[in-house]
Inverse folding.
């Protein structure tokens, strides 16, 4: 099997439509190449002939620590040899990884005010404030900070170019805007976030003095945008987060000096630095959710307890369960009890597993409390524990009788986001793979606010053939153990759909819904009549999934904008699009009477009346009695061709806000000459197309943000595998003045690593 890659640079001075073609003509032999693993900085190990290659690692500073590790592996061919061995750093500084922020909240979709990976936008900057007291309490002491990490909850797998982390000391205790001077750059690289902790080891450590507050700047500079990667965050008592995001075509998010806003939602972080001298205890995780456990039974979950600088040098940490006997604790195989002693020596407690047992005594009850960890003169650390004895058995059963064809692959409602596939057996009682899935015991119940509309989506996949199917969603709003009451059939498909698909909409929780945990049932049935789907009984093909939801009372001011995004498609520059509406609703607004300000972004206009007049300036929507319900009508007015427009309509007032993402584009006009394109962007070039013929079975030209064999990132390339044929790129229409035409282009090819 062989592969060819082609890389292009094209300059057109005078021309008409340009076609660049290539054909596969021969095979070639792959050539092996590689480099050593990353130690502290990238080290390439290259030998001109077979044999051992020796490298000398430069001395590390006292702030650096490198564990014993195999840093390269054996491989030999006629050109390159890599030895196999260990590299050991002779220096070893005391360091600690501390976690700041325990929140489990996370943003989703296009919300860009919290995450530092706001790649829904081309450029972004965040400044985060950490008080010295927070850092010391967490166990961080004066000394070099050598690494920084963010906890990613969902990844768009999109690269942040020139992702830069800078630090400085500050006397600020609250943020009102960006700080523009005094920064020390500690880390710069192109990074692609993955789910979990993403740790960035500093190339220039920052010497924290141990007493000043710490200000952190995170920014990046992209030429394209995709979706956001989201992080877990904690809401602080003051504004500790200033942010900015935009699509900057000629500058970087790192250069921005004015923030878009400030708030108290700060991403959870891990900081690697010097250990503080103050006693500390750490619990990971700090929340245990047992889900559903039947009365008179039990379920165990562990957490890790550790600590340092404890006084006296030897003693015990007392671990105490909540009173009542429904939660018990155990250490090192000890009997489960209301409390247990965990011994430590030398002022240090290594990672110790504490097991918490939930053994509820009453049915249909929510349990919660804190397991306290106290001693060693350290601040007491709590592990929040919760569980429930609400169970699906009080409800009628629903199930398919065949494992074939349709299955539910994802259910998303508010904070609930649960995925499965054809191989998934749900862990809850009564689950039967591909027929019935009980997630009431393991998936946390999302909060659904009474009187609010909450967006949902359901993904239908297939474990067999593709046939017409539909869904219904049922919620037991009065918690009486059935789905027979009015409004409890929450959603029904408008029509049957053949095969895999997504269904989206909004769940409107009645204002009078019974507060507390209740059942939500999602039923997918192979049928052409959606209205015939029932909450109980059996059917042949499809799947039923059960979840818990928690109905809560509205207490804070709120605004809701549905849908949360409007895409106008393509409209010629200078034209006005057809209007698209969204519903603006709200409650508990303060003051009880006032105005909601609706502010559109450039090239979009709004009106409270269908048909206009429309305004590019903010409009006021009055409300009374603390509530608002108003349709807002939006039009798109592009002013330039060949342009993608995006923005956010901000709806704010009464102590609440809600945003609507808007987007549109203008079609390609003929390009005037001269024209130049280096094909070196991370996206397919605007207004170009492609084609293919011969043995090539599909379009083969693409752009990759990562390097292909023998090439570099962000290069236009095409490839075949064991095929003879041709593929071409075709330019947009070019405006040719009178006279001749000169076409200049350069193409390089790489035979699967053989070099250009």
């Amino acid at each position: 099997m062989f592969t060819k890659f082609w890389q292009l640079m094209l300059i057109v001075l005078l021309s008409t439509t340009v076609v660049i073609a290539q054909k596969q003509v021969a095979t070639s032999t792959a050539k092996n190449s590689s480099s050593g693993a990353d130690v502290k900085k990238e080290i390439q190990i290259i030998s001109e002939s077979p044999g051992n290659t020796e490298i000398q690692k430069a001395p590390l500073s006292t702030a650096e620590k490198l564990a014993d590790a195999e840093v390269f592996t054996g491989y030999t061919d006629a050109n390159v040899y890599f030895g196999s061995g260990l590299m050991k750093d002779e220096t070893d500084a005391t360091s600690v990884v501390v976690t700041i922020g325990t929140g489990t909240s996370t943003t989703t979709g296009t919300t860009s005010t919290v995450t530092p990976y706001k790649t829904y936008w081309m450029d972004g900057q965040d400044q985060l404030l950490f008080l010295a007291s927070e850092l010391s309490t967490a166990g961080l002491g004066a000394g070099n900070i050598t690494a920084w990490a963010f906890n990613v909850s969902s990844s768009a797998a999109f690269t942040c170019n020139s992702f830069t982390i800078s630090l400085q000391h500050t006397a600020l205790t609250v943020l009102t805007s960006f700080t523009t001077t005094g920064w020390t750059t500690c880390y710069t690289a192109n990074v692609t976030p993955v789910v979990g902790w993403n740790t960035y080891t500093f190339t220039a450590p920052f010497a924290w003095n141990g007493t000043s507050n710490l200000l952190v700047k995170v920014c990046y500079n992209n030429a394209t945008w995709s979706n956001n990667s989201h992080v877990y965050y904690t809401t602080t008592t003051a504004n500790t987060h200033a942010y900015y995001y935009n699509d900057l075509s000629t500058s970087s998010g790192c250069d921005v000096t004015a923030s878009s806003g400030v708030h108290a939602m700060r991403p959870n972080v891990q900081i690697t630095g010097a250990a503080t001298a103050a006693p500390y205890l750490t619990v990971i995780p700090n929340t245990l959710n047992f889900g559903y456990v039947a009365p008179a039974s039990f379920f165990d979950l562990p957490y890790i307890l550790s600590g340092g600088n404890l006084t006296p040098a030897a003693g015990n940490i007392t671990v105490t369960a909540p009173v009542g006997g429904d939660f018990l604790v155990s250490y090192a195989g000890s009997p489960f009890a209301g409390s247990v002693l965990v011994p430590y020596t030398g002022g240090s407690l290594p990672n110790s597993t504490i097991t918490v047992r939930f053994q509820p005594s009453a049915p249909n009850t929510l349990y919660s409390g804190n397991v306290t960890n106290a001693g060693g003169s350290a601040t007491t650390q709590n592990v929040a524990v919760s569980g429930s004895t609400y169970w699906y058995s009080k409800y009628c059963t629903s199930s398919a009788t065949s494992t074939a064809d349709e299955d539910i692959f994802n259910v998303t409602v508010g904070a609930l986001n649960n995925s499965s596939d054809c191989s998934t057996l749900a862990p809850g009682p009564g689950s039967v793979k591909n027929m019935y899935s009980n997630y009431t015991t393991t998936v946390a119940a999302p909060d659904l606010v009474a009187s609010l509309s909450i967006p949902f989506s359901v993904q239908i996949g297939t474990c067999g053939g593709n046939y017409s199917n539909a869904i219904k969603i049922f919620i037991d709003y009065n918690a009486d153990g059935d789905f027979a009451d009015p409004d409890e059939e929450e959603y029904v498909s408008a029509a049957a759909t053949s095969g895999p698909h997504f269904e989206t909409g909004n769940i409107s929780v009645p204002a009078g819904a019974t507060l507390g945990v209740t059942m939500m049932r999602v039923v997918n049935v192979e049928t052409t009549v959606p209205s015939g789907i029932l909450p109980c009984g059996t059917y042949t093909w499809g799947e039923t999934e059960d979840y818990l939801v928690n109905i809560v009372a509205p207490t804070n001011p709120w605004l809701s904008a549905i849908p949360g995004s409007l895409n106008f498609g393509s409209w010629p520059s200078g034209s006005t699009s057809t209007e698209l509406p969204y519903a603006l609703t709200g409650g508990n607004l303060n003051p009880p009477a006032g105005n909601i300000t609706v502010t559109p972004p450039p090239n979009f206009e709004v009106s409270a009346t269908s048909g206009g007049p429309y305004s590019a300036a903010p409009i006021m929507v009055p409300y009374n009695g603390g509530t608002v319900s108003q349709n807002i009508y939006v039009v798109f007015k592009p002013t330039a061709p060949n342009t993608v427009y995006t923005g956010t309509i901000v709806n704010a007032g009464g102590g609440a806000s809600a945003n609507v993402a808007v987007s549109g584009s203008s079609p390609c006009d003929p390009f005037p000459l001269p024209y130049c394109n280096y094909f070196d962007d991370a996206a397919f070039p605007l207004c170009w197309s492609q084609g293919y013929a011969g043995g090539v079975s599909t379009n083969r030209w693409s752009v990759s943000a990562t390097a292909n064999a023998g090439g570099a990132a962000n290069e236009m390339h095409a490839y075949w595998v064991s095929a003879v044929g041709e593929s071409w790129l075709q330019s947009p229409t070019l405006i040719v003045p009178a006279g001749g035409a000169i076409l200049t282009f350069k193409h390089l090819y790489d035979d699967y690593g053989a070099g250009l």
Notes: The first strand starts at residue 4 and ends at 14.
